[in-house]
Amino acid sequence: MGSPDFAIPSLRVLYESGEKIDAVITQPDRKKGRGLTLTPPPVKLEAEKIGLPVYQPEKIREKEFIELIGSFNMDAIIVVAYGQILPEEILRIPKYGCINLHGSLLPRYRGAAPIQWALIKGEKKTGVTTILMDKGMDTGDILFQEESDIDQQDTAGTLSGKLSTIGASLLLKTIRGLERGEIKPYQQDHSLATYAPILKKEDGRIDWTKGAEEIRNQVRGMNPWPGSYTFLEGRLLKIWDVDMVEGNGGKPGRINHAGKTGFIVSTGKHSLLIKELQVEGKLRTTSMDFLQGHRIREGIILG
Fold first, then answer.
1. Running DSSP on this structure, what letter comes out for residue 274?
2. What are the angstrom distances between the C-alpha of 239 and each of 13, 111, 224, 262, 280?
3. CA 279 → CA 145, 232, 248, 261, 287, distances in Å?
4. Closest by alpha carbon to 84, among 57, 113, 53, 64?
């Protein structure tokens, strides 16, 4: 069970390892983009490419679908960023239970957006965890964990790619360990739990009164979605890449310098060099290219 790109390496590893995959369950196709084109989840495309049967229930709690899952006589259900909460009736079906690959070092960052929030909060390390699922949200007993450094240049997109590869290997290790009876699940320390709720578009709005480091972490954690944004003379301006600059130049959000390398904006503490941006309705571009076609006056206040 999986839906986004993060789940694809796990599906590939399971398939290439020789495991018999009875079914791939993913989210329904959704309308996306300006044209509202009906778009399949990435996992569906990957499963069809390698010839696996795909199911896309609107609601996994439907009685008919639970009965279908029970008919497979499976050993395990693997869940990787599926996007729906599994009812207890499904959790009880497989011999080895439902195994979830989660993109954090549980119990930290339980929830839908662990990779994004680890970056937003300025973490230096994160990782992946396999758990035996229970009825709670990411509260099940831990099977395995693997730690990974967060690079200073990582965005949610690049870090997700790295963790999805690490997680796929950990998932295969987990399955092999369960088959051999070598894993002893252990309970999470629930007192250490932190949460990573799903992000909304409005979470991307930049508050320039915050410090430069905090804003930079926000930009990294919200790239590629939902994207961090501000307003330039009334026009929506997405900010995709920034660097910290020592010193302040006045009111938070004030453009203090516009030159060949980009433009510098004051924050509540220190300043930020805007390196990559996107004006509403236009393509992403470097600040250098943007400034060749647009005159940015020093003293303009963003936001």
1. E
2. 35, 26, 11, 12, 11
3. 41, 9, 25, 18, 11
4. 57
pLDDT tens column, 263-301: 999 999 999 999 999 999 999 999 999 998 888 889 999
For 300, phi then psi, to 5°, come to -60, 140
Work out the angle at residue 17's Cα, subtended by the Cα atoms of residues 16 and 23, and round it to the nearest 5 degrees: 70
Give the three-state DSSP class for 151: coil
Return the HEC string of 33-64.
CCCCEEECCHHHHHHHHCCCCEECCCCCCCHH
Q: Where are the alpha helices (DSSP H) in 50-155?
A: 63-70, 88-91, 114-120
Query: What is the distance between the alpha carbons of residues 14 and 20, in angstroms, rounded to a whole number?
Result: 8
Is the CB of residue 4 less than 8 Å from the CB of residue 81? yes
Residue 215 near residue 252 (C-beta atoms within 8 A): no
Whole-model pTM above 0.90?
yes
